[in-house]
Structure formats: structure tokens, C-alpha cells
Amino acid sequence: MLRTLIHRELLDNLLTLRLAVSLGFAIVLSVLTALIGSVNYTQSMDAYGAVVAQTNEALGQAHVYSQLAPHIVVPPQPLFILCRGTSEVSGLTFWISTRYIGPPSRMRNAYSNDMMATLMQIDFTTVVMLLLSFLAVALGFDGICGERERGTLTQVLANPVPRVRIIVAKLAGGCLSLWIPLALSMVVSLLILCANPAVQLSGEDWVRVALFFALCCAFLGQVFAMSLMVSACTRQASTALLVCLVLWLVAGVGFGSLLPSVVRYGTYEPPWQEYVDQTRDLYGAYEREVAAWVEQHPGPGAAYLKGIQENGVLRYAHPRGYEWLEQRNGFVVAAQLKLAEERYKLLWANQAPLAAESHDVDQWSILSPFTNFRTLAKLLARSTLDDMFALSTYGRRYRETFISYLRDKGAFSSRRWFSDDPEDQEPLIPNPEDVTEARLAPDAPFMKSRMAWAADQQVRAAHDPRRRLEVSDLPKFGGSWRRSLSESLALMVPGVLTLVLLTVAAVLITVRRFQRYDPR
Q1: What pTM does this model have?
Q2: Would you state the torsion angle of the CA atoms of residues 295, 297, 300, 304, taken in this order, to the nearest 10 degrees?
Q3: What is the four-CA torsion angle of 478, 483, 486, 491, rounded to 10 degrees?
């Protein structure tokens, strides 16, 4: 009998125009979101390949330690196409520098245009939240009171069937009716993704996709159960529809818009200009500190420092000039490292309240089925703010490893930081003490002859293997900065429990109300 009731509910839903129209819209939107996401993913993968190639090429062609920039570049994740989240579909780059410590940044490419981000960027999660959840409301709001108005509820209750079975049949039939368009939309999206050769889903990615589909099913079941609960608590379908629409708007659009504003209320957000001013003060102190060192350790003179500067590499300076530059560079780099740490502290102090607000939004999102679903989807897709911060944490650790590597090489206080001249290299000015300021003028015959000599040396330097920097022992970036599946599931426990408890509560209330429901 239960199977017959489920079959009846399923047929009633499948034969309705609202299901057919919703199915058509769901498939069309799924195709559009998958195509747009797939194209963006391909562009991001192209940008990722270009950045990796440029980074490796720069490392291979480095002549001095200051040219080493082993940036951490991570590829875009294909699941971002289904749920953009915070990090969206683009890959991320963590820039390694002695001067700066910052958060990961999006890779820029020929297709990047922040001006285009004026409208909401939808994904498959948005299709489920807006379109299919509205279909769940449309199928459930008159599941009981609508049958009472049509007179069919009296006929159903005339049969010797427990009322609990009728509710179970309505829930099963409604959920199956919703899962059919969901499954079709999901299959269409996955077919489009798999047709893109740039999209490569790993075994864990497929598990996450399966869990994502199960999450969508549970969310739609929850919305349908709550709509059926409203239907059991009212006598007229018009009243049930009005209540369901109000709840749908409040829990979906309203709460999703109100929550960030409520979280921001009472939280002090440091103005960005405050960070800019503090950073300016840090740089001012840094420049004064360097100027004071130079004043206490005056240089040997312009003739000793005269050379060829090209792409951050100094060549053909006098050995005595190199000695002074080595001392100055050791002091400057130490000051730069200190400046980077202090600047990062200021940056984090400025951005921490904003990050805390974002975390609070995710935590309080469990109060609404819609925002809770969105947050759970982001955890599965690894597109939360914490996922981006995880890369930042690993990036800072690798930066410390890289700086230790440079220290072990003595790079900061060595001429190899800024020059690739071998020890036996003849300087541009062999006898600086015999050279007057007039002879150092660019149009002076002496300098013209020496620059001609330097041009000849540059041709030889291009084929000198001693000038190429050996970086085969450069430490590689290691460690998996992405959350594992078990870590993602652990973080999802509160949201999943809330989803299950609200669904069970809606079902119990529906059963309790229907037990005493008057079909007349």
C-alpha cells in the first residue's frame, strides 16, 4: 500500500506543469553555469600554466640570489565550478619575498577584468538554492491543505491506511519528484565538465561530487518537509502558499542579506587608510635606519661602485666597492626582513576583524536552511576563506624555509646577492683612486673606452657558466595545504546535524498535526 501511495504522489507531481517548467529552467541554468564555469576554469588553467612556466624560467635563469622568487602557485580546483565560494574558480599565488608577506592573490591573466564583477555570479549551488528550492515549496505547500480543498484527502483517509504512512508517502514522492530534476541537472553539468580536457577530477573529487549531490538532495528534502509542515498547519492552500513564500524569502534572500550586516554590527573595522598610514611610517623608519647606516659607514666613492647594472645584477664594480656593498646589503636585508614582519602584523591586525566577521557568518549560517546549505557546499568544494588562509599559512612556512636556505648560503652578506662577477673579474675602473670626477662623465673619452670594454665583456659573460646561479638544492614547496576529505567532513558536522534535526522536526510536526487534521 505504501508503494502505491508513493507512486500516486510521484505521478501527481510529475504530471504538473510547475515541475516541467522548473525542470526546463534547471537544465538550462545548469548548462549555462557549467559552460561559464568550464570556460573560466580553462582560462585559469592557462594562466596557471603560464605563471608556473615563468616562475621556473626565472629560477633557471637566475644569476644572483635577489632574483630568486620561488612563488607558490596552486592550480584552480574543478569543484569551484559547482560552488565558487570565497576563492572562486581562479588559482592562487603566494608571493615569496624578503620585503613582503601578504595573503594569497588571484592569478591575473588576459581575461581578468574586475569591472565585470557587477552582477551575481551564479553556480550550480545557486541553481539549487533558488530554483529547485522554490520548486520544493511549489510541490509541498498544498500537499495536505490543497487535497482537503479538492476533496481528495477524504477519499484517501477513507482507506484503512495509517496516517503516518500517508505522510511518509508524500515525503517520499515529493523528494523523488525533486531529485529527478536535480539528478538530470547534475548529470548535464558533469558531462559538460568532463568534456573539457582541462578539467581533471581525482578520486577524492568524485567522492566530494557524490557528497555534494547527497547534500543537495538533503537540502531539497528539508525544504519540502518544511513546506509540507506548513500545509499541515493550515486549512487553505492560499494561506499555506503565502506562509511558504514569506519563509522562503526570509530564510533565503532575507537572512542571507541580513546576517553579514548583523555580524558587522558592533565590530570595529579598522579603516584601510589607518594601515596605509602605519605602513608609510614603517617605511619612513626603515629608510631613516638605512640612511643612518650609510652615514656611519660612508661608501668608498663613485669610482669604486661604477659598473653595469642590468636586471638587478651589478657587474664590473671594484672589489673594494663590492666589500662595502656586501656590508650594506647585509644590513639592508636584515632591515627588510624586520620590516616585512612588522608590516604583516599591521596587515593582519587590519584584516583580522574582517576575517572574523566572515567566520562568524559561516558559523551563524546554520540558523537558515539556505545559508547552511551554502556553507556546507563551500566546505565540500574547499572554497571557504579558511581554505585560502591555509595556503597563506603554508606559504609563510615555506618563506621561512627559503630565508633559512639563503642564510645558509650566506647570500645576504655576499656579492652574489647582487652581482655574478667571478673573483678574477677585472673591474670597469681598475684604478679608482687615479680617476677624477670629470673622467667619470658619460661623454668623457675614458668612460667611452671603458664602456666599449664593458660591452665586449657582456658578450663573453652571456656564455660564462660561472655566472649562472646553481639552485638545484633550492627547497621545494611541500605539504598538502588543501583540506582532506575527513577534515572537511569534520567541519561539516554542526551544519549537517542542524539540517537533519530541522528536517526531523518538520516531519514530526507534520505527522503530529496530520494525526488530528480534519479533512472536511
Answers
A1: 0.85
A2: -100
A3: 150
Cβ atoms 111, 407 nearer than 8 A: no
Interior/surface letters 357-371, b for 16+ CB within 10 angstroms, e for the rest: ebebbbebbbebbbb
Question: Identity (one letter) of the amino acid at 438?
Answer: A
DSSP 64-122: SGGG----EEEPPPGGGGT--TTT-SS-EEE---SS-----EEPP-TT--GGGTTS---
Tens of pLDDT, residue by residue over 83-113, are 887 655 456 788 888 888 877 776 555 445 5
CA distance 47 to 38: 14
Ramachandran bin of 22, using left for φ above 0, alpha for ψ from -120 to 50, beta for the remaining angles: alpha
The pLDDT-based confidence of 324 (bands split at 50, 70, 90) is very high
Check if the beta carbon of residue 277 is closer than 8 Å to that of residue 293: no
CA 170 from chain centre, in angstroms, equals 40
Of 469, 450, 433, the residue nearest 308 (C-alpha): 450
Chain center to CA of 231: 41
3-state secondary structure of 144: coil
Residue ranges with strand state E in 241-381: 308-310, 313-315
C-alpha cell at position 248 = 522562503
Cell reading at 476: 621545494
Cα(298)–Cα(444) distance, integer angstroms: 26
CB-CB contact of 220 with 180 (8 Å)? no
Question: Whole-angstrom Cα distance, residue 221 to residue 175?
Answer: 6
Using an 8 Å Cβ cutoff, are 286 and 342 in contact? no
CA distance 379 to 490: 10
For the chain, the domains span 2-112+121-265+368-393+478-515, 281-362+423-463
Question: What is the 8-class DSSP label of residue 316?
Answer: S
Which amino acid would we find at residue 485?
Answer: L
Neighbours of 436 (CB within 10 A): 10
Burial of 96 (0-12, 13-18, 19+ CB in 10 A): buried
Give 502-514 pLDDT, tens digit per residue. Answer: 999 999 999 998 8
- Cβ burial of 37 (10 Å; 0-12, 13-18, 19+) is buried
Grid coordinates standing for 67?
632574483
Predicted confidence (pLDDT) per residue in 106-151, tens digit: 655 544 555 444 455 678 999 999 899 999 998 888 888 888 888 8
Exposure of 321 in the CB half-sphere (CA atoms within 13 A): 23
Q: Which residue has the cell 658578450?
A: 459
Q: What secondary structure letter does DSSP report for 132?
A: I
d(CA 383, CA 500): 23
- Residues of the chain with pLDDT > 90, as a percent, come to 42
Phi, psi of 48 (to 5 degrees): -60, -45
CA distance linking residue 263 with residue 276, whole number of Å: 25
Q: DSSP character for 141? A: T
